Amino acid sequence: MSDFTDWKKYNIRTGMRLHISRHLDALSLNFLERKHTHLQKEKRKRDQLSLPGAVAVAASGSPVRDLCEEATCSICLEYFRDPVIIPECGHNFCRSCLTQYWGKSEGEASCPQCRKTVKQGSVRPNQQLASFVEITQKFSLLGGKMEAKGKGRVCEKHQEPLKLFCKEEEAPICVVCDRSKEHKSHEVVPIEEASLEYKDQISSCLDNVRKEREKILVFKADAEKESQDLLKQMKAERGKMVAEIRRLHQFLEEQEKLLLVQMAEVEKEIAAKREEQLARLSRELSSLECAIWEMEEKLQEPASELLQDIRSFLQRSQEKENLEDPPVAFPPFLKWRNWDFCDMNLFLESVMKKFRDTVEYGLQLRKEKVTLDPDTAHPQLILSKDRKSVSWEGVPQDLPDNPERFDTNLYVLGREAFKEGRHFWEVAVGSEEEWAVGVARESVKRKGKFTVGPKEGFWRIGKWGDQYRVSTRNGPPVSMLVGEPKRIRVALNCEGGRVSFHDADTAALLHSFSEASFSGETLQPFFYVRKKEILRLS
Length: 538
Known about the structure:
Helix content is about 45%, strand content about 15%. By secondary structure, the protein is α+β, with helices and mostly antiparallel strands. The protein has 3 domains: about 1-215, Zinc/RING finger domain, C3HC4 (zinc finger) (Herpes Virus-1, 2-Layer Sandwich), CATH 3.30.40; about 255-365; about 365-535, Sandwich (Jelly Rolls), CATH 2.60.120.920. Helix 7 (about 125-145) runs antiparallel to helix 9 and helix 9 packs across helix 10 (about 255-300). The protein is elongated. Residues about 1-40, about 40-60 and about 145-150 have low confidence and may be disordered. Keywords: Coiled coil, Metal-binding, Neurotoxin, Toxin, Zinc, Zinc-finger. One of its GO terms (molecular function) is zinc ion binding. This is E3 ubiquitin-protein ligase TRIM7-like.
């Protein structure tokens, strides 16, 4: 029953054309099953009659029959011709038989043997099975020509026992045949030796085919296990999220409700999309079935009635031929929402101990598209046309000495200004010396020499020589880091009074200024560069 349900779902998913042929497929499937059973019985009788001697005796319950069955297509009940394998279930069929069974359908189909839903494009040739079939056919031919013990098989020409086997002719011969001109230059071996040789080849090929089948079965089991693991992970993540949120008591009650409502909305959207799709498909199915009925009735009408309003009838009928493919049932944004909840759970677990300080950082952090403000740039700093990179030039440019411009320190600020919320931007810093990035108050001093530090309104990290340093409240830089980050992420939390610096590629925290005093002022991105270095906003 579950197979039929899966098949029905498959037909709905893959479009109108497959669904229309559903009833015909059901009838043909029933017919094929009855025909398959009948052909199996007839083939067993034919095999018993066609396998003489020892082969016929062995075929009643022998490895010979097993070998023949292994080499037989379950659709046509003949030896495999151009065998192909379905990786999802491991079953083999003749390429022509499988193509004929599936018909003109595309995309997904069902295995003729186990009814599992598979992708037609995944079918691939089975060369090992083809070799196995070839050897089995040779062995069957050998058995058909061999003399079985106790049955008196003799050479039709010389009436001598068939005790030898000609490898060139691939046929059993007698000792007289061996001495004839026909077989004089041929390689001849005792028939038992030939039988053992072919048995060894078949056994080797059979082992390889069985190993291939085991590989497919392992692949199938792994795929099923992976899907179960993913489902369990999603279920576990949902449980962890609820558990972690509830542990935060009153502080996280609102967050818990918000997240659960969002998940419910996603579930509702999924259910709505499903119902919408099924309703649409049902309407189109009804329309198509009515059209089919009308066309079938039209075909039965006499010529005089059939030709009445034939043009309008054909026009209506042709409109049903090229229906648009059904839209994607579940759009990508629903999957992204699903992934978003899983990713959020990881965040909640990692920041539980410092949740009050960092939860907003993880839930609402925004990336800013920062550009450089040329009105603040020192005359020796060169800005790119897109205002995304800055480098140092030893010769000052002829620029107006406006109040916003730094005239002594090699600084430039970002055009964007922030007073509330949480923001971040990333800067490619390379490996040269020397540079610094960070945040500065809008009111910082611009003219002459001055001390740089948090007290003066600068929160920065940079490289001087072979060391990375940060500005401290007391003024002098302190060595903090070892390593070579290529990109720095600057994160600003205005309400939380925090400026953090991360390695943008590894997410490692480099330094954080906590309890920074912004005094309610507007803040701007800060950049310093000298020597060969180029800073580039990414």
